[in-house]
Amino acid sequence: MRIAVSAAEDRGLDSAVHAHFGRCPYFVLADLEGQAITSVKVVANPFYGNHQPGEVPAFIARQGAKVMITGGMGMRAVEIFQESGIEPVTGASGSARQAIEAYLNGSLQGAGPCGESIEHRGES
Fold it and tell me: Strand, coil or helix: what is 46?
């Protein structure tokens, strides 16, 4: 299984989780077998700084991720991920490693629109 984490920097699993997935400069992609991380790569967000609704979720889908972990995301993005069979998870903080571990141990689950998204009416 592949998990994507929004990242503020290109430091692999030590990258800080970015607060908003669509505006992050990087994504950490972690491949897992069971609970073990088997490989990690960082990819630049090609839509960093400027994206239209649906572009970033489609990019994550092309990366083969089954889970998208982030600090926050817009309601439309949550819906797009769910429609694509990708589990959106919001509320993450700390490092990508910590966010993945929290997801795996069940302490980080579910997704809801971030406050900024509510103010901007569902931007994704």
Answer: coil
Compute the CA torsion angle 70, 89, 100, 31 (nearest 10 deg).
-100
Q: What does DSSP assign to residue 22? A: G
Instruction: For residue range 90-103, list pLDDT tens digits in order.
Output: 999 999 999 999 99
Q: What gap in Å lies between CA 117 and CA 65, rounded to an integer?
A: 23
How many Cβ atoms from other residues are within 10 Å of residue 47's Cβ?
15
67-69 β-sheet, strand order: 36-44, 26-33, 2-7, 67-69, 87-89
Structural domain for 77, as ranges: 2-119
- Model pTM greater than 0.85? yes
10 Å CB burial of residue 9 (0-12, 13-18, 19+) is middle
CATH of the domain at 54: 3.30.420.130
Domain count, the chain: 1
Q: Are 37 and 30 in contact (CB under 8 A)?
A: yes
